[in-house]
Amino acid sequence: MVDKNNKETIKFIVNIQELSKVVEYLKVFSKKNTIFLLYGSLGAGKTTFTKKLLNNLGVNEIVNSPTFTIMNQYKTNDLLINHIDAYRLKNSNEYEMFLEQMIDAFSVVEWPENLKINYSSYFKIIKIFISFEENDKRLFVIEKED
């Protein structure tokens, strides 16, 4: 569905075994200077989704949550990938040290609501909202501007 602001919204309701459907849809948008902003409560599946996505993009090493390191970097043959967890960041100033490393890379940011940064000035943004559904399923609401 595309709204009047040229924002397209796609929804998926999946369990862990069906998560590859969401990954396959989003894989084509995983490019340089693109950021996936992941919103969701603790345990919603942000890191699980990121692990599945990065493995699908060709990351062969173990993908760990960057909760304590703030940012983990991975390389594939043609893409530098940043996985950022902003949960512990208290303000945007702490985050600015990572912005330079995000240029010419693909980035996934968990807890972006902790930062007050206008990402769209620098990057193509895709927002992904993850919430709990019945029977161990998750609702993924994906917003992207055309």
From TrEMBL:
Protein name: tRNA threonylcarbamoyladenosine biosynthesis protein TsaE
Protein's GO biological process: tRNA threonylcarbamoyladenosine modification
Subcellular location per the Swiss-Prot or TrEMBL entry: Cytoplasm
One GO cellular component term noted in the UniProt record for this chain: cytoplasm
Transmembrane regions listed in the UniProt entry: none
Any GO MF annotation of the entry: ATP binding
Transit peptide found in the keyword field: no
Keywords associated with the record: ATP-binding, Cytoplasm, Magnesium, Metal-binding, Nucleotide-binding, tRNA processing
Family label: Belongs to the TsaE family.
NCBIfam families membership: T6A_YjeE (TIGR00150)
Domain of life from the UniProt record: Bacteria
Gene of this entry: tsaE
Primary location recorded for the protein, binned into one broad class: cytoplasm
Species name: Spiroplasma litorale
Record's keyword annotation contains ATP-binding: yes
